[in-house]
Hints:
The chain is an alpha/beta fold. Helices cover 40% and strands 14% of the residues.
Amino acid sequence: MADCPYQTLQKLKVLFMDWNCYGGQDMKAALRRCGINLSLYPFSPRIERHDAAFESELTRAVRSSSPDFVFSFNYFPVVSKVCSELETTYVSWVYDNPLVSLYSYTLANPWNRVFLFDRQEYLFFRRNGINTVHYLPLAAAPERLGDGAASPKIARKYGGDVSFVGSLYTEPKHQLYNRIQNVPAYTRGYLDAVTQAQKRVYGASFVEETLSDDILSDLRAACPCPPHPYGVETESYLYSNYFLLRQITAMERAELLRGIGARRPIYLYTNDKSYTSPGCVNRGPVDYYTEAPYVFYHSRINLNITLRSIKSGIPLRVFDIMGSQGFVLTNYQEDMTDCFVPDEDYVYYADEEDLLEKIDYYLSHETRRAEIARNGYEKILRYHTYEHRIPYLFAETPAADFISVL
């Protein structure tokens, strides 16, 4: 268990926007371990960017508790608006990408400290003159994840050679691309070509730049997706991130599951219980807090197949696998090298053929596989717990950006 090394934080008061978010339980526990005076404010992420009743209630709460900081996972313009009016620092730590609320004009509010886990996303805003954003990778909670060890019955239930925990983006709510109907044949062919090309490229995202005015016009006519009236996001951002890149992720995950399943069982934990594929054992959803750590620990290889709208960042799944002493085999993500050493703390694959070869290799080299899993876990303990991130988030002066620990 990590101890908070910054005793000055014990004097701080934080009003925590409390909603059912990833990392919420772990962050609250870490703040309390650091001795921070923590108050919880029940919150719904569905609050609109302007909500007079909510703004009035939050204003009263902030005035009553007089916190040093208001904190939320992900960014909420309505919270920023209230904090700016009260001259109270609003700390937001973003774990979603895309997150269209970042394109609110409120992002530039001087009382904001918005931390993005994706360096490329951070650089985009900085290059456009937004100096309220900072770069900060996500973290793990090894004190909750533990070592994952359990009874033989639990190990049989959650274990396997190769596992993947995550969405397949096959659920109707994610199938936005399929809503694009009745577009000209040229546009359909163009979009299909772009998705196929992007699917074969790791480490760079070019879809948004390929959407010309003519293509956007056809998309607009087929499935309108207008920007928010109080936002600065573009149609090309919305269609590329929420339609095309999500579709590419669905295609990629399905193809990789089929490729692995043709050679050996692949254990899948996902909300889409109806999904079937040869060799794929669909075990349905697992509770991410209470059950996923068992999967991560008892699976010899844990896959990370990153949502394609995450340009360079490290998904939370990677931290949680490592924090559970699991072995990570992931697609290439540039930011991984800020925190971990490839082939020492984790392994990445370049394409499907490389993935299949590395699965074969590490299943037949148990000592090496276990060594890498152990190295990743030790790196988490030394550098990447929530306690390690808290000083960045709640420094008395505006935070410095995260610098590689390697």
